[in-house]
Amino acid sequence: MTQELIDLRNSILQGRYAEALEIVDELEGMNKQAILRNIQSYLTILLIHLIKNQVERRLTSSWVASIRNSIREIKKVNQKDNKKSYYVNEDEWKDLIEEEVIEDAIADASLEVMNGKYTRSQLSAIIDKDEILTTANKLLSLTYIYSAKELPAIMDDYISQLVGGEYWG
What we know:
This protein is mainly α. The protein is built from 8 helices and no strands. The longest helix is centred in the N-terminal third of the chain and has 40 residues, at 17-56. The protein is elongated.
């Protein structure tokens, strides 16, 4: 990015404004891609723990912390600087999860679920992806409704509804 900033500065100083605008567009694209990668990373962590919860039919304090942290961080990263719009809109999560994240989450979860008992393909066959997607979407939808201050208490209510959640809270 440093080279792009140098090029931008030179383009402006030399009056090449069309070229400067192209560089600005490129920088904006790079920034958005970095933000989406960050969101996908937290989304993968969220899905890993939802998969573990579904298969092992329990909920640990560390899983709860990971789920809660993932949702909080997604809320922070997803909101644009204007605080009025998002990088990923509420109706776009399903496609993002199905197209880019779920398979990575399954592969990573296969190493953890039941101490690595299942291969990626075996785990993929036994999980209910629709249920995981529904749960993830419910949790993600909270980020559009509640403030960062309200979110932890609201998430506790949703998390306690997961399998094993009645023993957690």
